[in-house]
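Design request, tokens follow.
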């Protein structure tokens, strides 16, 4: 009992001092569970997030565009791998996490349940989806859990590059033929609102925010980060000479921020509950990829066992 109180006190002192909790440290069960939930959801998002863009690798308009897109999709796989490793430091195995995704017990980001209909969607995903991801993730570099914070440093650097390449795709299309420009505008029109939804429900309907902020897992609320993203995107849209599909979007001198129109939260929850345009397709694809990869996992395990046996014999 006395030891428990000392452990709680040490944990709280670390959080209060804005220092990092490391895997060896004692932590409350709920803190651990919250981190597993968020990091796993984040990792699954990176892996499922490879599908919408993977869809365009064979149809990229030039060799240069194809090479860049392939590198981006590979980066997302890498982000998934770092994040699964960060989650494993909390005592869950990668197999368990994969199982939870495949059985629908853990989530992935709503955004990856929308279809990629044209090449311009590669631009809109890079600019808006990676842009929103950066705004959300830069504060996580200061998350109270060390392995998650450190994983996020490299991830954010790569996401910044992704965002620029998306912007550059749209920049080229917006200055291209009339049809290319229309394609760019259509992609932005379709991806704008789902990108705003990425930040999660409004603060007064976000069950986890208050506790996650008290623990230093989240540094800003969902609405604060959403506003930061809108403020960043509006001038960038102007420089692209594209419009954002919101008639209520305007600068509010008093607030020092852009006002924006209401978000369709019914659409968000429909997608989160599994009934978005591509939820079933994404999960079927993920399940098939997992089954197809069984022989690779078996071969890797057999090779590792052989290496271990050699080491023991030596
Ligand atoms: N989608 O109480 P809150 C990327 C759920 S970026 C689905 O506010 P929390 C890069 C939430 O889980 C995308 N579900 O929850 C990339 C909870 O449900 P639960 C990934 C959502 O955790 C770019 C419930 O709603 N980024 O992959 C969503 O405090 C391009 C109540 O919500 C991250 O995961 C949503 N959008 O705040 C890859 C960032 N929002 O679990 C490829 C890290 C909320 O109780 C291509 N995560 N929910 O059943 C976070 O910052 C937080 O988890 C939030 C949600 C802000 C997403």
């Amino acid at each position: 009992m006395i030891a428990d109180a000392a452990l709680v006190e040490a944990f709280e002192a670390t959080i209060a001092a804005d220092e990092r909790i490391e895997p060896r440290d004692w932590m409350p069960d709920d803190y651990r569970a919250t981190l597993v939930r968020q990091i796993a959801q984040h990792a699954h998002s990176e892996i499922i997030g490879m599908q919408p863009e993977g869809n365009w690798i064979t149809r990229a308009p030039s060799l240069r565009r194809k090479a860049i897109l392939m590198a981006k999709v590979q980066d997302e796989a890498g982000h998934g791998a770092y994040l699964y490793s960060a989650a494993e430091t909390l005592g869950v195995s990668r197999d368990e996490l994969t199982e939870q995704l495949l059985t629908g017990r853990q989530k992935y980001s709503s955004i990856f349940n929308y279809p990629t209909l044209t090449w311009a969607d590669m631009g809109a995903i890079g600019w808006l989806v990676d842009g929103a991801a950066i705004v959300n993730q830069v504060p996580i570099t200061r998350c109270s859990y060390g392995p998650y914070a450190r994983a996020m440093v490299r991830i954010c650097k790569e996401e910044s590059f992704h965002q620029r390449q998306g912007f550059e795709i749209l920049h080229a299309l917006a200055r291209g033929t009339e049809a290319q420009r229309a394609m760019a505008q259509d992609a932005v029109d379709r991806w704008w609102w789902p990108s705003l939804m990425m930040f999660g429900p409004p603060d007064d309907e976000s069950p986890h925010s208050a506790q996650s902020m008290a623990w230093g897992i989240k540094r800003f609320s969902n609405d604060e980060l959403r506003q930061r993203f809108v403020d960043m995107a509006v001038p960038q849209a102007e420089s692209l000479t594209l419009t954002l599909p919101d008639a209520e979007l305007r600068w509010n001198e008093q607030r020092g921020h852009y006002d924006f129109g209401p978000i369709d939260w019914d659409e968000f929850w429909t997608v989160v509950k599994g009934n978005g345009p591509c939820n079933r397709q994404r999960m079927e694809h993920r399940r098939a990829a997992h089954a197809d990869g069984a022989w690779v996992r078996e071969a890797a395990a057999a090779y590792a066992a052989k290496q271990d046996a050699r080491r023991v014999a030596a």
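Comment from the thread starter after seeing the answer: thanks! Residues 1-276 form a domain with the Ferritin fold (CATH 1.20.1260.10).
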